[in-house]
């Protein structure tokens, strides 16, 4: 029987509740499709940091490294200064585990309302691939004379051919397995050095994918095109910070943070990939049971696809979409059910949803991802 080892960082705030829902969904599809998932809880996040003073200890990192994939709920707490967990845990894991691309699907499911007029399931199914390890996130720079009128802050942006090529290569493979269109999103007219490198890499790699049509959009123009004409896009590849910003815009047009999933993906399979909802720990609603678990169950579906479990992945996605379509609202008490109840409903649906209603259009992200998945054990030798 196929078997996977999943490390689980439930984290803080709403993280544990939405992660429990995601695991219930994984359990349902694993039983249905005949594989097992062994989970290991890894205690990281704000609570752990406040208790131990360590953001990411060596033992936890080694434990994570031994797994096939990592499921993350959310980390964060108002008591922890900004940047400590984001840089010390999330960014550190992305780099340590060579999770060189961040995959953010922007798909509007039938029955889910978009706040943007004219956006419907037929024109909203794109994937943002964000370079995940460098750009302005590389972290170099400094602040001299802080707190004085002479203060100078430098925040360096790093763009390497190697990381850019890895993100672009993955994006072309994804586009070739989907609708065959790749858009580079950058700001080549102002960030001329980094922009030139990105464009050269897209041209060079693109020459090997003649079946993929190429397009370019400046990041500011993207903020107009994405809500007004999402159907223009299939796979959008972009720099780390631009990707962070435009994928939140994508989350909004697809129904909000409660339904936005992501994968920190290691395309080579040399270390575990990490799957997490786009939302954070949402301290304002933590403990209220009003968090929508769909972003977490959809992230778990991405995880299953990343492991090569295509049927389980599309079934969990379809079950989530089917439950979402019944909700009177996508967040808060207006959803009409608590986080745990929704998790149970999604898991029950995943156990018996009719395969015929599993909406998996040819070239969907999950199919493409499952097709590209390296077998983790083999890839790591
Ligand atoms: P963090 O500092 O951990 O990023 P945050 O509150 O700044 O937390 P988010 O957690 O992303 O950022 O939350 C932004 C807003 O969206 C909050 O008002 C939160 O309640 C709401 N929200 C986030 N996730 C969900 C969800 N799954 N269901 C419903 N509402 C959500």
Structure summarized in a few sentences:
With 381 residues, this protein is α/β, with parallel strands linked by helices. Helix content is 41%, strand content 19%. It has helices spanning 15-33, 46-52, 58-65, 84-96, 161-177, 192-206, 219-228, 240-253, 294-306, 310-324, 339-352, 365-372, 376-379; strands at residues 2-11, 35-41, 69-74, 101-107, 125-131, 141-144, 152-155, 181-186, 213-218, 235-238, 261-265, 273-277.
Key structural traits:
13 helices; 10-stranded mixed beta sheet; IsoPropMal-DH-like_dom; NAD binding; two-stranded antiparallel ribbon; Isopropylmalate Dehydrogenase; 381 residues; binds adenosine-5'-triphosphate; metal-binding; NAD; 41% helix; alpha/beta
* Topology-level CATH name of the largest domain: Isopropylmalate Dehydrogenase
pLDDT averaged over residues: 94
Number of domain units: 2
String of helices and strands? EHEHHEHEEEEHEHEHEHEEHHHHH
Apparent shape: globular
Strand tally, please? Answer: 12
Name of the CATH homologous superfamily of the largest domain: Isopropylmalate Dehydrogenase
Strand content: 15-25%
What distance separates the N and C termini?
A: 20 Å
Low-confidence stretches: none
Which structural category fits the helices and strands?
Answer: alpha/beta
Strand order of the largest sheet: 2-1-3-12-11-4-5-10-8-9
Question: Judging by the overall fold, what is the CATH architecture of the largest domain?
Answer: 3-Layer(aba) Sandwich
Radius of gyration from CA coordinates: 20 Å
- List the ions, cofactors and other small molecules found in this model: adenosine-5'-triphosphate
Main sheet, how many strands, which sense, barrel? Answer: 10 strands, mixed
- By CATH reckoning, the class of the largest domain would read Alpha Beta
Give the fraction of residues assigned to helices.
40-55%
């Amino acid at each position: 029987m196929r078997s996977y080892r999943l490390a689980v960082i439930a984290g803080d705030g709403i993280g544990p509740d939405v992660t429990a829902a995601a695991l219930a969904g994984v359990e349902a599809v694993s039983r249905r499709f005949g594989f097992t998932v062994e989970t290991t809880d890894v205690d990281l996040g704000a609570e752990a940091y406040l208790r131990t003073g360590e953001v990411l200890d060596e033992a936890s990192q080694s434990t994570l490294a031994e797994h096939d994939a990592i499921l993350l709920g959310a980390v964060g707490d108002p008591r922890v200064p900004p940047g400590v967990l984001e840089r010390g845990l999330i960014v550190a894991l992305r780099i340590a585990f060579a999770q060189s691309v961040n995959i953010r699907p922007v798909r509007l499911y039938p029955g889910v309302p978009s706040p943007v007029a004219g956006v419907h399931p037929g024109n909203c199914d794109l994937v943002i691939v964000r370079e995940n390890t460098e750009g302005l996130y590389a972290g170099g720079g400094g602040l001299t004379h802080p707190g004085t009128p002479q203060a100078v802050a430098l925040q360096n942006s790093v763009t390497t051919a190697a990381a850019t090529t890895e993100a672009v290569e993955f994006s072309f493979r994804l586009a070739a397995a989907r609708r065959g269109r790749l858009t580079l999103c950058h700001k080549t007219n102002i960030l001329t050095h980094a922009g030139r490198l990105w464009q050269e890499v897209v041209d060079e790699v693109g020459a090997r994918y003649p079946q993929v049509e190429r397009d370019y959009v400046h990041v500011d123009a993207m903020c107009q095109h994405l809500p007004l004409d999402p159907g223009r896009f299939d796979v959008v590849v972009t720099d780390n910070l631009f990707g962070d910003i435009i994928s939140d815009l994508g989350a909004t047009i697809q129904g909000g943070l409660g339904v936005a999933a992501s994968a920190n993906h290691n395309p080579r399979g040399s270390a575990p990939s990490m799957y997490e909802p786009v939302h954070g720990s949402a301290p304002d609603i933590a403990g209220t049971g009003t968090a929508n678990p769909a972003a977490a169950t959809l992230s778990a579906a991405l995880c299953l696809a990343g492991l090569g479990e295509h049927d389980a992945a599309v079934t969990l996605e379809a079950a989530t979409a089917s439950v979402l379509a019944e909700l009177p609202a996508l967040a808060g008490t207006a959803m009409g059910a608590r986080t745990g109840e929704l998790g149970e409903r999604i898991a029950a649906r995943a156990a018996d949803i009719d395969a015929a209603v599993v909406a998996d259009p040819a070239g969907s992200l999950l199919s493409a991802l499952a097709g590209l998945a390296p077998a983790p054990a083999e890839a790591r030798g």
